[in-house]
Amino acid sequence: MAKQNVAEQFVDILVRAGVRRLYGVVGDSLNPVVDAIRRTSGIDWIQVRHEETAAFAAGAEAQITGSLAACAGSCGPGNLHLINGLYDAHRSMAPVLALASHIPSSEIGLSFFQETHPDRLFQECSHYSELISSPQQMPRLLQTAIQHAVGRGGVSVVSLPGDIASEQAPEKAPEHALVTTRPTVRPGDEELNALVRLIDDADRVTLFCGSGTKGAHAEVMQFAERIASPVGHALRGKEWIQYDNPYDVGMSGLLGYGAAYEATHECDLLILLGTDFPYNAFLPDDVKIVQVDVRPEHLGRRCKLDLAVWGDVRETLRCLTPRVRPKTDRRFLDKMLKKHADALEGVVKAYTRKVDKHVPLHPEYVAAVLDEIADDDAVFTVDTGMCNVWAARYLTPNGRRRIIGSFSHGSMANALPQAIGAQFTDRRRQVVSMSGDGGFSMLMGDFLSLVQHDLPVKVVLFNNSSLGMVELEMLVAGLPSYGTTNHNPDFAAIARAAGAYGVRVEKPKELAGALKDAFRHKGPALVDVVTDPNALSIPPKIKAEMVTGFALSAGKIVLDGGVGRMLQMARSNLRNVPRP
Fold this sequence. Notes:
By secondary structure, the protein is an alpha/beta fold. The chain has 23 helices and 19 strands.
């Protein structure tokens, strides 16, 4: 067997760990690894135009597949560009291995050209960040990094000088079986028994669900039925818990709707399932609260808990549900379902009033039509800002669709790069980037990556020529909007010039046909929809301190606006409410 250098060994271990792509931008210190990929079957080098895109793409791939994904940046400025996407992946618990190639090892610490210290720089956005300073550290260091990323859910960073990558790998170096999946975590009997007592003693229980309910839909529904509990969710829990849910009372938070807020405040026991919901102004301070989470460091950091339960949601509920006494009194549940439907009846009028004739187009209308036309198993990637609002209120989950965004890190420009990673996992699956004009233009260069790799991503551009959410924050704070206006080109013309399909929509009657034509196109496509920058109305009681970059400090009222097909869902749930 031919002797390997460190770069070749590095790549072989990635393949063994299930990595099929390495996203990045080539550069001198990274060249040995890229060349090793060129000569290795089972893994591809995915060239992008910006390393931030590489990290976002890897994070999205990891969220879609649940498996390890990888990205890379060359020394200094190259790997520095990874950091924003790595922060997002880490906060989304997406298992990502980042390779930060480094300056020559003999020059480290001497202010060499492009010198940084990546092993230090990435510590805050990773579980593991270490420097390979000798070939003898391989393969153990890389194996350790992989196991941190997979086992703890998040990012690991390996810094590798280019000269070390070219050196001969140690012969007969110890290799061990890689951990590539995570185990389930079951709470102890003592915690389960304490939780059973709290539930049995409570008259009104509400469940509030986050992304930790992934894979636990059936268990949550069975548990809610047994204890007659309304079920609310955070934004990251929407795709996992809202569909086929007769106990749904909507979403809480700044983008929320329905009766989720009332359900969490009028109960006498609130159970937080798999959510690290950051907006504690929406959480009650006068009811008992239990939190169930697979990450023990999440327990109790948002609110005072009466019981902390360390375990994953699915396994916890499998153990818990048979132990609790069934609750036959549905009055609290039925009351919340009625409040939910009434709340949606009130706000849906803002959406239905002449919206199909309004020019510029209401973004609510665009999102609703998109929801109707998109495939049942589509992947939506959603830009931070107003696109979050439209995704939260108009995209209908069904257990097969995916909704990915920078929901914890809150970065601009995430949707297009995440769509790249999502599409590479399955070229036949429909991937839709819900992009704002601000976010899209920030990393617009990687629209060229769609064309270069012939990725059939469909970019639906909500083009209101402004940074809409920032403008809203200013208005709510009593400030005149300033620095929020974008002077935009015809993005559809740019798409066509790049070799993609591009169409501009300025009238409502053009929208459905334009979306259908773009979705039928076999390659990348962009639909530039000119939307109304004043579409979002603000309730008169909202206060200045309520909105600060997506966080609430003391707010209780959500923004007004339509809610798409959720009203229909709420009405259908009301059929099960006993009539007096």
